[in-house]
Amino acid sequence: MLKLLLIWEGRLNRGRLMDLFDLSSNWASVWIREFREQYPDWLMWDAKTRSFHTTPAAYKAWRTSDPRRLADATSLTQYLTLVGLPYAATSVAPGNGGILAAFPDLSTPSPQHFAIVSEAIRRGRAVQLSYRSMRNPEPHQRIISPHNLIRAGRRWHVRAYCHTRQDFRDYALGRIVEVKLLATPATKVEQDDKAWLADVRVRLVAHPDLTPEQESLIRFEYFSNTAARVETCRGALVSYFIQDVRAATDVKKQCPPDYQLAVANLEEVKPWLFPS
């Protein structure tokens, strides 16, 4: 358990263990001491945060044990479940049953990158990225001020203010080549991100090209036998939400059976969609 916290959060301290496992201060200290005895090279004390931080040796050992990163997705699932943010696993031992996801985690983030970005968010700091994008596939430098991690579909993103573009953007964690925590305070924070703070209504209906019988089925499955369903989500996440539920935004081009839902209030939603 402590190994998961150390690898994915980048630190261990008594307060975190006391909150997470309902331990006394003494027992939390005992757990950390025993872990340090077992993995003496994995922790380094940081007086400013009053925490033991993950050392490069820990991530090196982690990567050496799994050079192809095949276990990262399972490890991340276990970590999220441990801290109370579960999502469905992609496999389970025979006979154990369980809740499964039908899709593989194709872009599991590096534990070290995940931990450094999480640390920056907790401490209100900027980070320097070496990043690759579809527009600029070669690694290039960016300094960003992150404020939230997002799991959207099959990928993890960080929502952050880009110091170069001077705007809030989403960065896929799987496209980060290197990341470095800076001493620089975050230039902009969550409260400055208008798209993040905006509440946007998305009205979902059955696709108009469905037969009456099929429309009745969609209403039964998704809308509790009503004509539509309205969900409210952050403006910055509207496109991810629509992609995830596979709702058509152009009913002439996006047709059944691939699209069984449609967005009814397109004009209201359009300003928040990714550029086509």
TrEMBL record:
Domain DNA-binding transcriptional repressor CapW C-terminal dimerisation residue range list = 200-269
The UniProt entry, under PROSITE patterns, shows: WYL
Q: Which Pfam families match?
A: BrxR_CTD, WHD_BrxR, WYL
Give every DNA-binding transcriptional repressor CapW winged helix-turn-helix domain span.
2-56
**InterPro entries cross-referenced by the UniProt entry:** CapW_CTD (IPR059020), CBASS_pafABC_assoc_protein (IPR051534), WHD_CapW (IPR059019), WYL_dom (IPR026881)
Q: Any idea where the WYL domain is?
A: 113-180
Q: Which domain of life is it from?
A: Bacteria
Q: Quote the PANTHER family the UniProt record gives.
A: PROTEIN PAFB, PTHR34580
Q: What name does UniProt use for this protein?
A: WYL domain-containing protein
Q: Which organism is it from?
A: Rhodocyclus tenuis
Q: Source taxonomy lineage?
A: Bacteria, Pseudomonadati, Pseudomonadota, Betaproteobacteria, Rhodocyclales
